[in-house]
Design a protein that fits this description.
single chain; about 70 residues; mainly alpha; Arc Repressor Mutant, subunit A; two-stranded antiparallel sheet; 3 helices; globular
Length: about 70
Amino acid sequence: MTAQHIYRQRLQYLIYMLRHHKPGGAMQLASKLGCSDRTLKNYMAKLRKDGFDIKYSKALQRYVLADE
């Protein structure tokens, strides 16, 4: 498996988790993805740049897709 393939898989899995309301905070998400907190933040920055409206909900204590 190439690094690019792993990168795409992680981005797709992150989108899946956000859509299905599974994640918690950054540490939980990073753990589920098998990456560091910093890498997770880079992934979220990439997705935001690509048009995904990712927000952190203090009330729910997790990241969410704001448009869903």
